Amino acid sequence: MSRSGSSHSGLNHWRIQRWSALPLAPLGLWFIFQMLFLEDSGFVAVREWVSTPHNATALGLLLFFLMIHAMLGLQTVIEDYVRGVWRAVLIGASRVLGVLLASAAILAIVTF
After folding, report:
1. 10 Å Cβ neighbour count for 102?
2. What's the pTM value of the predicted model, to 2 decimals?
3. Which residues lie below 8 Å from residue 67, measured CB to CB, with a gap of 6+?
4. Could you tell me the pLDDT band of residue 1, with boundaries at 50, 70 and 90?
């Protein structure tokens, strides 16, 4: 029995969203604690914090999984509440915007 069809694509979407949420909990807690215990909240201190390899990597992973999770969640909301041609337009626009935001965030981390 093959797993093709609309019901299985929804299951895959659901699974990816749940799996993308798993790393968000520890990474989110890590980020909150890092920000709470940062000695100085000025630009230079944050820049030095981001410039360390382990912080840059963890922040990049946080943003990557956050954008995947957000894009899938927004797609679900659009599918549930938007009808007609606007559904495809908004899903496509949200994907493009998500990729652009994620790319800009990762680029900012790398060049910071």
Report:
1. 18
2. 0.83
3. 98, 101, 102, 105
4. very low
Handedness of CA 91, 24, 43, 107 (dihedral sign): negative
Contacts of 74 by beta carbon, 8 Å cutoff, 6+ apart: 94, 98
Residues 6 or more apart whose CB falls under 8 angstroms from that of 97 comprise none
Please give the Cα distance from 13 to 33 (Å, whole number).
Answer: 31
At the second CATH level, the architecture of 6-111 is Up-down Bundle (1.20)
CA angle 4, 69, 43 (to 5 degrees): 155
Q: Kind and range of the H or E element at 3?
A: none
Q: Say which residue the tokens 């990729």 belong to.
A: 99
